[in-house]
Specification:
single chain, 224 residues, 57% helix, flat
Length: 224
C-alpha cells in the first residue's frame, strides 16, 4: 500500500537505484575504458489504497526540480498502477495472482465495515480458499497472511486518522492565528466572526464559540 506523498516517488526511487547500482558495481572498474553495462531499471508501484486513482499515473523526477528546465539533465519516470478491483482489467487478466490479491483486499474492506477486522480477515481468507483465490498461498501461510493483512489495514486506518488529526490541528491553529491578527488591529467581534465564517466555512455559532474560547484563555484581550 502507498501512504506517503506519491509525487516524491521518483526521488525515492532515484535514491534506491543509486544504492543498488553502487552495490552492483562495487567490484568493477568505474574509471576504466570499457563501458560497464548495468541492468535496465523499471519503476512500477502497485496501488491498492482507498483514494480514487486512475488506472495509470506517471510521476517524473523533473517535476520536482526547482527551477524547472525544458530538457533536464536527469530524469526518472515512476509509474503507478491501480490494482484495486475494477481497475487495469487487462493487467488483471494477464496476472491472475494480482487479480486474486485485488479480490482478497476488496473482500477484507467490505467485511471490515460489517464486523471486527480480525473476523473480516478470517472470513475473507476462508472464502478465498474455498473459491480458489490465492488458495495455495493462503493455505500454506494462513497465520502470516492474516497477521499481515490486519497490520496493513490497521496501518492504513492509522495513517488516515493521523492525516485527519493533522488537518484538524492545522485548522485550529489557523483560526487562532486569525483571531490574534484581528485583535492586533482592534477589529470588532462582528468582523472577527465574519472573517472566521468566510475563511474556515464555520457556522456563526461555531465561530462565536471559537472567539469565546480564545477570550476565556486570553482575558486581557477583548474586541471592540
Amino acid at each position: 500500500m502507498i501512504f506517503q506523498t506519491r509525487s516524491n516517488l521518483p526521488l525515492r526511487f532515484l535514491m534506491y537505484i543509486a544504492d543498488i547500482y553502487s552495490a552492483y558495481t562495487k567490484d568493477m572498474n568505474l574509471y576504466g575504458r570499457k563501458a560497464i553495462q548495468i541492468p535496465l531499471p523499471s519503476f512500477i508501484i502497485f496501488y491498492n489504497g482507498r483514494e480514487q486513482q486512475p488506472d495509470r499515473t506517471e510521476y517524473l523526477l523533473s517535476d520536482l526540480f526547482h527551477p524547472t528546465a525544458d530538457y533536464p539533465a536527469l530524469e526518472l519516470k515512476a509509474v503507478m498502477l491501480n490494482i484495486n478491483k475494477g481497475h487495469n482489467q487487462e493487467l488483471m487478466d494477464a496476472c491472475h495472482t494480482l487479480r486474486d490479491y485485488s479480490e482478497y483486499v476488496s473482500r477484507i474492506r467490505t467485511y471490515s465495515a460489517q464486523m471486527p477486522l480480525s473476523d473480516a480477515v478470517e472470513k475473507a481468507i476462508t472464502e478465498c480458499i474455498q473459491e480458489n483465490i490465492l488458495r495455495d498461498f493462503l493455505i500454506k501461510n494462513r497465520a502470516e497472511a492474516k497477521a499481515m493483512s490486519i497490520y496493513e489495514y490497521d496501518e492504513e486506518k492509522t495513517m488516515r486518522m493521523l492525516r485527519e488529526e493533522a488537518y484538524e490541528e492545522a485548522i485550529e491553529i489557523g483560526i487562532r492565528t486569525t483571531i490574534e491578527t484581528c485583535m492586533e488591529f482592534n477589529a470588532p467581534s462582528t468582523l472577527i466572526i465574519q472573517k472566521l465564517i468566510s475563511k474556515f466555512h464555520l457556522s456563526e455559532e461555531k465561530a462565536q464559540a471559537y472567539l469565546n474560547e480564545y477570550l476565556n484563555q486570553n482575558p486581557k484581550h477583548s474586541p471592540l
